[in-house]
Amino acid sequence: MEAAGQQRIVRAEDVAHMGITEVLRHAAYIHSQYRALVRAIRRDPPSVAILIDFPDVNLRLAWHLRRVGVPVLYFVSPQLWAWKRRRLRWVQQRVDRMLVIFPFEAPFYRARGVNAEFVGHPLATVLSPTISREAYAAENGLDPQSTWIALLPGSREKEVLANLPIMLKVEHHLDLLWCPYEFILPVASTLSHEFVQNIVDELEDPYQFAKVHLVPDAREALHHARVSIVASGTATVQALTIGNPFVVVYRVSPLTFAIVKRLVRYPAEIPAHPDADGNLPIAMPNLIAGRRIVPEFLNHRFTAENLAAALEPLLGDTPARAQMIADLAETRAKLLPTPDSNPIHRVCDAAEDLLHPTTRPDLPRTVPTSV
């Protein structure tokens, strides 16, 4: 964007800190950069604003933009349909167009007076990796005759520390006699290779048979793995669009889990039902499908024994594997944009519409008394 002529007021990479202590340590600088951006908006208002995700900052920026008469286009909705629904009023008051990437989000917003459009999910339009299994094995030191299990423990250090140890223990509960296994572990761009390798080395078990291979690309790992264990988050959408069977896991502190369990409530547009423990689904593939198509193991249910029991039917050529592959393909189709369309191109078209308004009427900007 900068090469195309964008004037950068604030560098996103300079204020991208994750973790409570990290954010607190840099809070003064982050706030000063935010104020600099607000001053720039007031001093030289843009013709149109495209805000992408990041609701804690962007919904506040939208207020300043609206004050100076700048039309606001929001791409990639915050998950207001799950929690913090009080922020919906900010969307109603400050956003001219909401372009969403999940199909259930458009009816949710429209029913609440927001001009929303489903444009498709960018990951659904990405072509599958083309590297062959043999070339992938040679490139990453894998045995092409082995069964490969991909492990995606998350993109933050705390997530990896919480999820990876249990993932690696699954081999002790799988039948290793009929076919050897190897683990493929993609290293997220937000993590260092050394950090992940150190964790793997510390967890090394003298009785561990399956070798762990650190690889750079998650999509290639998901494409070539027989099955995958995926931490809840964007990676589950990657796994969905690739189409190989997988299970979803996540672990947080018991207090955090109890609080989130009480806070998350889905609207009528998302037909979600609690499991035997009273947990609503959290994996995006299950929310998109409107039913549980991939198993979820959260907190106390996230054990190596449970993972092995869920993976065993998916490793062979079984009806369970065939059914999950079919369910994933059906759900992925729901993420596709309309024919001859592209999510990013649609964002550009919407920005052009705001720059050059036509006589086409928009949805009424009503603000319901209840959200």
SSE series = HHEHEHEHEHEHEHEHEHEHHEHHH
Please count the helical segments.
15
CATH class of the largest domain: Alpha Beta
* Overall strand count: 10
Query: Which fold name fills CATH's third level, the topology of the largest domain?
Result: Rossmann fold
| Strand composition percent | 5-15%
Low-confidence stretches: 363-371
Range of helix content: 40-55%
- Give me the CATH architecture of the largest domain, please: 3-Layer(aba) Sandwich
The best one-word shape is globular
Ends distance: 36 Å
Strand order of the largest sheet: 7-6-5-8-9-10
Secondary structure class reads: alpha/beta
- The CATH superfamily of the largest domain bears the name Glycogen Phosphorylase B
The value of Rg in angstroms is 22 Å
Query: What does the main sheet amount to?
Result: 6 strands, parallel
Mean pLDDT: 89
Number of domains: 2
Secondary structure layout:
Blueprint: H1 20-25, H2 27-43, E1 49-52, H3 55-67, E2 72-75, H4 88-94, E3 97-100, H5 105-110, E4 116-118, H6 133-140, E5 147-152, H7 157-168, E6 181-186, H8 193-202, E7 211-215, H9 218-224, E8 227-231, H10 234-242, E9 246-250, H11 254-263, H12 284-289, E10 296-298, H13 304-315, H14 319-333, H15 343-355
Parallel strand pairs: 1-2, 2-3, 3-4, 5-6, 5-8, 6-7, 8-9, 9-10
Helix pairs in contact: 2-3, 3-4, 7-8, 9-10
